[in-house]
Amino acid sequence: MLEAIRKHSTGIVVKGLLGLLILSFGAWGIGDMLRGNISEEPVAKIGKVEITPESLTEGIKREMNRLSRILGTRIDRDQARALGIVKSTLNTRVNQTLYGLGAEDLGVTVSDAAVRREI
Q: Which of 6, 20, 59, 74 has the most CB atoms less than 10 A away?
């Protein structure tokens, strides 16, 4: 059977199909690299506020770096997912947005003087 495959794989048609397959996967991979793998759609929407994939990714990276410093070892994406960092970061972003919207609805503001005092 292997001999039959070897014999038929030397034809120009098979080489052409293989080349077409390689080119299509190459174009697909390059397209992903140019566009990036991040979707344009928000990962969450709270009222009029949208949490973008970029914002979530930034928060996840920040949390991964924080935990890496604490644990003394680098955390990769799979470990971050297993530890629930993705979900907790999204929950944190949603909660921050809800607090901000709630404060805005109540008219709660902080004066510039109060901010200067705290800094």
A: 59
First to last CA, the chain: 77
Alpha helices in the chain (DSSP H): 2-8, 12-35, 53-71, 77-83, 85-106, 112-118
Helix (H, G, I), strand (E, B) or coil at 7: helix
With tokens 């001999």, the residue in question is: 3
**Paired residues of 51 in beta bridges:** 44
Closest CA to 54 of 62, 88, 84: 62
Q: What is the pLDDT of residues 76-118, one digit of tens each?
A: 888 888 999 999 999 999 999 999 888 888 888 888 898 899 8
Give yes or no for a contact between 43 and 58, defined as CB atoms under 8 angstroms apart. Answer: no
Q: Kindly list the domain boundaries of the chain, sorted by start residue.
A: 1-37, 38-119
> pTM for the complete prediction?
0.59
